[in-house]
């Protein structure tokens, strides 16, 4: 008979890699196959150290700015998207570049441009300084996108014409918090136009719904993800908001604070959209070594989304 304490691990599904992250990683791998090392990548291709280190070992060089890349090596733009000025500069320098922007981020870019062409000013709901926000705001001339991060920010919005506004959002926000900000915008600017189809992506929405589905069965939630991963941090918040007293981000198993979950009989585990499944396996194994473990999968949606890599890399 086992001397270990019993513990049930509720594994949320969907979790981990989304189609946009999967495509971005494939793009770097195929670029390395096609052009050989080094291939430059502007910004972390996805926000996960494990993934970035693995690609670095294969010959990818991660930089923050285009001026750190030589003219004669290919450069890849990350899944978060880039301001328009970046591909324009790459073209000016006659560089080979591949844009790994997630198609769901590109959809928001197109939306912003369409509204701008119709003479509307944009309000973007998002987190200041996040690469996706910088990329999306950088699709339009300065001053054309006003950023709001919270409900309180809505009161401070000073539009050119309150009757000629549209809003867009970052793709990885909290579904519930964003709904509150949208309601505040609509209350203040009744004519504001929203996206035809939700900007928060399917992967973000599904991962948050899966956390809500396990929240009332667990005493602690571990979200596998990086501190700079927006969708992972939102999962921690969703866990807390759903009543989980201990909701914590961990990059890997060695970051688990075992004392914090001592005495718990039911723990939830999920992973942000940029965390590979191998890190989930690592966490499950760590629990198995310490507990008489039962693993239960709680699946709230099936994901079949897949994005093609750009044509230039298909034959690679
Ligand atoms: S989280 Fe959503 S928007 Fe971001 S890369 Fe994944 S699918 Fe695309």
Automatic annotation (TrEMBL):
Top-rank taxon, per record: Bacteria
The keyword Iron-sulfur is annotated on this UniProt entry: yes
Chemical reaction(s) catalysed: dimethylallyl diphosphate + 2 oxidized [2Fe-2S]-[ferredoxin] + H2O = (2E)-4-hydroxy-3-methylbut-2-enyl diphosphate + 2 reduced [2Fe-2S]-[ferredoxin] + 2 H(+); isopentenyl diphosphate + 2 oxidized [2Fe-2S]-[ferredoxin] + H2O = (2E)-4-hydroxy-3-methylbut-2-enyl diphosphate + 2 reduced [2Fe-2S]-[ferredoxin] + 2 H(+)
Main enzyme class: oxidoreductase
Keyword terms, alphabetized: 4Fe-4S, Iron, Iron-sulfur, Isoprene biosynthesis, Metal-binding, Oxidoreductase
Cofactor(s) named in the record: [4Fe-4S] cluster
Similarity section: Belongs to the IspH family.
Biological function: Catalyzes the conversion of 1-hydroxy-2-methyl-2-(E)-butenyl 4-diphosphate (HMBPP) into a mixture of isopentenyl diphosphate (IPP) and dimethylallyl diphosphate (DMAPP). Acts in the terminal step of the DOXP/MEP pathway for isoprenoid precursor biosynthesis.
Protein name: 4-hydroxy-3-methylbut-2-enyl diphosphate reductase
Annotated organism of origin: Paracoccus sulfuroxidans
Gene: ispH
